[in-house]
Amino acid sequence: MVKTGDISTMADGWREVFERSRSVPPPSQTVRLAVEKHFTQSHGFQLSLSRLTTAHLPQEMSGGEQDLTYQLRVTLFDRNYQHFFGKTWKSRPQRMKNNKISFNEVLYFHTCLRLSSTVLVLELVSLSPRPDGSQHALGRGFAVLELFTNRQEAQAAHGDRRLNLHHGSPRGLIHPQLKDTVDYSSLLKTIDGAHFDCTIKNHLPLVSVMHLLPENVLVSGDENIPGLAASPTGDALLRPQLLKMLPFTLNRLTISLQPSLEKFESQLLQLINADCHNTKQPGPDGTLKMVVIQERRLHVGVHNGWCFLDKPQVVVLEPVVLGAKGRADSSLKQSTVKGSSATSSLPQMLALRSSLELRLTNHRALAIVFQLEYVFSAPIGRETMLSATSTSRAAFLQCLRWGIWCPFKEPADGKGEEIQLVLQGGAKPSPHGVMVYSTEMSAKTQSPALLSAPGTAQLLEAKDTITFQLSSSLEKKAPSPKSSLMTKQEDVSRQRRSPSSPSQGQKYIPPSSPPESPQGPGLSLSQLAATSRYPTISHSSSALPWQQSFPSLLHPSPLASAHQLSHVACSVVSNIAHLEVNLQRGGDVSPSAQDEGDQLQELPFTPVHAPVITLGMNVPSSCAVSSRSSLAHLYSAGFPDIVDCSGQAAEVLDPTEAVPFDPQREETDPLQGNLLVFQFLGFTRIPTAGVGPDWPDNIYFTFQFYRFPPVTSQQLKLLTSDKVQQKARDPLPCVLASINKDGSVNSDSPGLQVQFRVDDGFLRPGEKRWFLRYLALHTMHIDIWDSDSLLLIGSTAIELKYMLRQGKAAVQALHEVEVLTTDYVGEDTLLMSTDSGRRSALSPMTVHTIIKGRLHIRTGNIGCPAGPSRRRAAGAIPPHCHIITPREVTGGFRGGSLSTRSILQLNARNTAQARRLEMDGDRVASSRRGIRADTIMPRQHILNEPDGERRKLNCMAAVHQREGKEDAKAAKATGGTKEARLAREPHQIKPSEELNKAEGIANMLSQAITTQHLLYTSLGSAEYMEFVLKNPFNVPQTITIHSEDPELSVITNTEEWRYFKALTKTSTPLEENMFHLEEGAPGPRVYLRPKESIHIPLKYQSFLCDHTMALQGPSFLPAGRDSQVAKKTLSNIVAAKTIKVTFKAEDGKPMAICQVNVEPTPHVVDQTFRLYHPELCFLKKAIRLPPWHDPAVGDSDIKTHISVRCSDPNIICQTRLLVPGEPQDVYLKVPGSPSPHIKMFFVMVFTDTWMAAPSQIWQIYVHFLERVDVSCVTGQRSCQSLVLRGKQAVCKVKCFSSHPREIEVDPEGVFVLPPAAVQELQLKVQPWRAGSRFLYMNAVDVEHRRLITAWLLCLNVHRPVLSKAFEVSVPVGGGRGSSRKITYTNPYSSSRMFLLRSDHPDLLQFKEDKFQIGGGESYTIGLRFAPSQSPGSVEILVYVNNLEEKTEETFCVRVNYT
Q1: How far is CA 1407 from the centre of its chain?
Q2: Between β-strands 716-719 and 734-739, what pairing exists: parallel, antiparallel or unpaired?
Q3: Rounded CA separation 1377/1407 (Å)
Q4: pTM recorded for the entire structure
Q5: Helix boundaries (H) for 157-279
Q6: Up-side HSE of residue 709: CA atoms within 13 Å toward CB?
Q7: Contact between residue 292 and residue 336 where contact means Cβ atoms under 8 Å apart
Q8: Which of 336, 654, 794, 1114 could be stapled to 700 by a disulfide with Cβ–Cβ 3.0 to 4.6 Å?
Q9: Whether 1351 contacts 1436, CB under 8 Å
């Protein structure tokens, strides 16, 4: 397949950067002076512009001072030659406050002109608005900053500088009186009291990106520089990071010139020779000098809009007959007018016989630049005969065509498809900065046009094109040595036959090939004579190169002196290599290695989707953005106050200010209890595309606080006041009110209040410090849902540090946070694009953050005194809680029954209870998650439960009672009753229930040597313990340690043991190589001397948990409660279990048993992600990790070791260490499920080597939806059918879409769905924005508020074909806007009704939304443009649709607000 491209359509991104980055070159004399002083190495500098202080500025305006802003403009200036060069940088407009103007801008530039004459000129300009909307710029003064001293080493004048502001304009520096002036202070008048503060210093990190920026160009850190990675701080040049450069191969390159190659060159030579004839300089015999084509060259370089990333490579092209398999026709080697008729009749083109290697980075504004250049030669002196071997000929260069192609503007399919690019000529700005040959005919044929428009084939036939293939070099296979040798021999013979080869007296000189390019066998005469500074000629110029006597070497054309641009000052030409040789690198490959096959090399893969970015531990503080009237309206609803125990109002904290945190004050607080309150007050709607102004109507929340179970709130109604007038710019917040189960609104108690009580009865020993740390460092994630459609509205986060009381009785804070969601949008395509089918699957998606609303939440913490029954020290941790010491058995078996109760009573004396681990420093995660919810009471061993016989009797009685009449009849037939049978059954069961006496004795003896240990664990946290094992015998023993559960293991690694000892501050002895490991053994073995005691290190760690989820939807709570408490679902925790670790002697009998009773506790979730994916297919996602630094490691350059684990063993979760300095991602591969299933799991991120405790725990929800692909056009309605299948019961269903203004569903209302029935749904999609998008639709059971089916609508929206284009100017702040008219003619012969639509209804309104006109008649469409308060431009599409919403015509109106 062939892709076609045009500069006007393909390189918009590159063109924008190129037009913005054009600069003026410095004086050539200054460049030569810098070279003479050996200042050839460019140095980077950083200029910090702080503020301007002035008491009075000249030319003050009397009026409009409040609208006056100031701008700073900076330009490089050479005072020796009075020449401004580079590019003028302009700051953002700033206002003057207290006679000071703060700019706070940082500039960067690099230059090799480290001369004292190079200075920076800073001009202060005032900007005032004009009545027509434009701005009037007026100079208020300027300052001169000297960059370099006059010393030989040309050091920069570093440090803080205070510059005086001078009267006048910088143009005064060009005055002849100031020429050769070193000190301007004597000639320039200074403004009293006005000075500018700035700082200039070297910036070494700029060296790594100098190839991305031209010299002498001032840029700021937020400039768009392709090839430079974006920085989260906004200043990408402070610590620049480069994007990866990948190798690519350019092959099968051909150039087709119109109308044909021979006719093109014939016409070119005719024009040149005609100009030569017009000079009337014939030879002595009356013959004219003939100009011939000596060589055809192609310059290929990679350009980022600012400059070439490397010197362009120059290759030689050869004329090739089409269809001749690359055989060159030598008849075109020396083309003349007479010889043009003798050429072959077959079509010919210019071709590159081999490949070309380029290095590219993935950026949409990066372009490959091609420049076709011919080398002409003309005879010198009295020469009358054309001699191919003569050296008395002058050579000159001329650029004929050029073109660019952006390889990453559109996604490639990776198959190396053929690219066809249109070349252009004429006087247009080009990256090489040279004049390009053009004629009247070529100028007409080279006009830019869309190649996808009708008549593409005819347009292509009239255009000069270049065709090539671009593929990754890593996929390329090296040619065999045999074919390479043949190619090299052919090249040598061709060089010997070449008419332009060097003479016999010249020595062969191999060229120095450009970087990463193959080296050629030899060079022609023109290559040896090539210079790095050459302008080109223009056909229309009056002076011609053959009017002077030229030496034999190649020189720049003297005609182009007037066209010399910035490219003359630096070398842009590299050595040329004939790329017709072997491209294999390194030594020869043996035949045996080729037979075995080459090892596949992994390609550097960049995923199409953007990684999910983690927010980290901190989020921006909430701030009030609503107006005072909006807040007054919100608090007039009468929300319940947050008061302390004495009835006083809680102290209000400001969320915008820092909160002091003293852990000691919190721990010594006399009010040890904490009642944490969350009040959901209101929700402010923000207008969003695709939904109505009253959306959402009902909402509910889901969140999880600390280790409490997840909370799902009830339905909340958004109440609006009819008495207060709504404003579009400042929408009023809607008060939240709970909705009862019957649908009524509980307006008497506005808002929703959720309370959590945390006191000493809830916290475990040593847990309080971790709870306080949780409040100080964590944020609580909240999801906001639409309770009608069950669609996610967005998410937000609340900082919990404002709930720290710090000794106060009660505190409260009001938060106004933004509700955010992400939208994935792909690049739009034209309707007639032939490659649109593949682009939908491969096009990269751009992630946009959309603000759906603002949530008003009040948080509070009320201190409560601890009750007498709960008063204990929650912060105290008993020492040595992790050491398990078996108790000495002083009493034996006293006789009696061997029942379970007696064994348990005996075992109770051997029980040791675990305590939380004592951690130091920042090692908090291990113990902070060992927590249980207060609603989940600790499990108690019920020792007095009924015997097994009585329990079974009760179960049998319950079963028989449900048998009914049939049992009664059966009882009569057998002559007995149920009571009689129940009396007989115990005698039948009793023999099977009795324990064997020998087994009972063995069980009792094992319990006597069993030590129980109660362990509180949480997900991912490692619990460390040491069991004291003693050899009671007088002979040595080799003990085998066996654990019945792999989650409880023995630590056999000495380094790991030492790590956990240091972590828990355990002072017990550590022994090297204590354990003996054997394959196939039940566990590690340890040697004990007689009567010796040792410590066995044990570790329990579980990564698995229960993933059961509650059904999606709001909860229903009874009404009439003062404090509504949300529904609490079961927490996702690990299952409780008992694990035995047996220490067996050499005879196989147990010597000791350690029974660990695992008591699970919930864990703290640091961050929540919700992902949507098509059903029944794998989800592959990358989540970007935040930059972590271990405080325990002093050197910040040491990379933190990061490892991840997943709570679901069926999910692949891994991370790989990439290049240092680059972000690290966590890769997930989740198996699919049917719609509307939601899969929930946890990802644990560890930053320590031994994974003692997770640094973060992420909760990830994956919503699986049924995928529907829809291809449509903007403004036009498209229909799609869906099938909805019924469930087991009858239900009332209604379908909801995420964008109801773009998607209509039929049936629209509630309909009954019978069991196992099939209901067809009709989707009417009418989008208004082009590109690839994802929309959502849910089928909801309206009675039970449960989700039945969910669809993921994948829209591939194309741009329509435009019929006409208009442009209109609308004044800014015009009040009533502007009106225009457009005439539309009915193309049909009959009367038709038409509808008018617009993709910007907020900016454009029609006089009539629909009209009817007769056949062939015309109608005037009235347009009304809304006013704008800011200047700018926007394109508005006007659609003329029929009654079926099919587009008849599309108009584009470009509105310029000036």
Answers
A1: 43
A2: antiparallel
A3: 14
A4: 0.55
A5: 261-278
A6: 17
A7: yes
A8: 1114
A9: no
